[in-house]
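Let's study today's protein:

:::
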Amino acid sequence: MRRTIALLLAVMMIFALAATQAFADDAAVPSGVEDGVLTIAMECAYAPYNWTQSDDSNGAVPIANVPGSYANGYDVMIAKRICEANGWELEVIQSDWDSLVPGVQTGTFDAVIAGQSMTAERAEQVDFAGPYFYATIVCLTKADSPLASATGIADLSGHSCTAQIATIWYDTCLPQIEGAKIQTAAETAPAMLMALETDMVEFVCTDMPTAQGAVAAYPDMTILDFTGTDGDFQFTEQERAENVNIGVSMMKGNTVLREAVDEVLSTMTADDFNDLMAEAISVQPLSED
């Protein structure tokens, strides 16, 4: 009997230690919204996902670290829906593209909502909620360019191009174009578009929302969409899910925040996302302040 009791006590102790460790692991990753404020980061320079403007028109919100400036765009619209559903206040921080992942990892901000693809590489560093947009990869060229009649990526061979740094567009898509003259990556999406507008390159690679926003701002550009053709960029279904869909990133292990965000996004359909993106494009300024 004593041996049985001792065994039961040992088992109970193991379970208690496991539960304590699990609690400690959860407690080690705070949600970040304990204060009722969701602090998110974005470039504020990546229309139509996000941009900077000088007032609060069309639902723009203040940029906390840039006094007198306001953020707007699809990312802000999504963030506001997440906050409204959870009773949180929204705080937006402007942060450069390369600092977004490190900022989440160090807890500088709670999450990134910035048109960020849910890549496998990023998923090793952060957790993702979503997707909150299903993107299509396209190219942009000048409307009067010979490339405007291209029917597949093979037609872009031998021509100069670029895309934004540290994106699937630059790292994976452009190398698929045999013979493409790939130039130095652009630091930002606006810089990428300016390279095309000033004829530094003949085409750029980006996603459909960025391209639609670009055409609204630069009517002399046209979209090359090879989706569904043999001339499209090639991805497996897993690669497409990991590299093309757009998600909300947060610190590894922040299950409380991830589940709260996913609960809101799960109520929205692809059509809802597309309609909201169309709204963002319709109020996008022709140039960013």
Remarks:
- The chain has three domains: 1-30, 37-134+244-283, 137-237.
- DSSP finds ten helices and 13 strands in the chain.
- The longest helix spans residues 2-27.
- The chain has a mean pLDDT of 89.
